[in-house]
Write a structure and sequence with these properties.
This protein is of the alpha/beta class. It has nine helices and seven strands.
């Protein structure tokens, strides 16, 4: 097998952050010796999350077995997911801003046609629905647990109690037409084709679209982690992976 050097487009701050948490976990477990030090384990996990490198590729690159790679990555993801901000913490942080933007994204997964709960009718593909909250500048604040792709955005938001949490905090929230009828502090555009609306409603929808467009930066942030572009792991692990990515993003922000 050929081996070549590669690079990860992340700062050393992300590496130090993860290495510190892994070192702390090793102390808690009383681990005396491992094949790789905490810094190398952190680098291995980042290569998987950011670049989407497979277990086999990482095993060769780091000189360990595939099973060891799996255990190291699983441990790193678990450690990061444990310190990810909760919805309550995210709402508290967002209360300092003028408003937030709520949107949903579909993370593609490797599934067969028979897995109907995971098939999104909107995107015509299998995936997991993740709700994302961003600040007025498009910076990622919070990402929800993953639900099957067939789940509608408004249903997902209600399941995660996002709408109620924002309403209780009095935070205005801009969202797309998929959240029609959400109530609370959620503001959605007027329904109907643009040309059939009055001039006033058209102007409101245009302004609304400009605000929501900023939130697309958060989606680009998530998809910048190549592993999330096509997940081939068990669907039960996707929530922790999303939380791990969120933690690393906030740590390096």
């Amino acid at each position: 097998m050929l081996v070549y050097p590669s690079a990860i487009d992340l700062s050393s701050q992300s590496l130090r952050f993860l290495a510190q948490h892994l070192t702390r976990r090793r102390r808690e477990l009383g681990t005396r010796w491992r094949k790789l030090p905490a810094g190398q384990q952190a680098l291995l996990a980042l290569a998987h999350l950011r670049c989407g490198d497979t277990y086999a590729q990482l095993a060769v690159g780091f000189g360990v077995g595939v099973a060891t790679v799996y255990r190291y990555i699983h441990e790193a993801v678990t450690v990061l997911a444990a310190v990810a901000p909760t919805l309550e913490q995210a709402v508290t942080a967002a209360s300092a801003g003028a408003f937030v933007i709520l949107d949903g994204t579909l993370l593609p997964i490797d599934r067969i046609a028979a897995d109907r709960p995971f098939c999104s009718g909107k995107h015509k593909k299998h995936g997991m629905n993740v709700q994302v909250i961003t600040d007025p500048f498009g910076r990622l604040i919070w990402a929800s647990p993953a639900l099957p792709g067939a789940t509608h955005d408004i249903t997902a938001a209600r399941t995660h109690h996002v709408i109620d949490a924002l309403a209780e905090a009095g935070i205005k929230c801009f969202a797309d037409k998929g959240y029609q009828g959400a109530g609370g502090t959620v503001v959605v555009p007027f329904r109907g084709k643009h040309r059939n609306l009055s001039a006033g409603k058209q102007a409101v929808n245009v302004a609304h679209a400009k605000i929501r467009a900023v939130g697309e930066q958060a989606m680009a942030t998530l998809k910048g982690w190549r592993l999330l572009r096509k997940l081939r792991c068990s669907t039960t692990r996707i929530t922790d992976i999303v939380k791990a990515v969120l933690t690393l993003h906030l740590a390096s922000a």
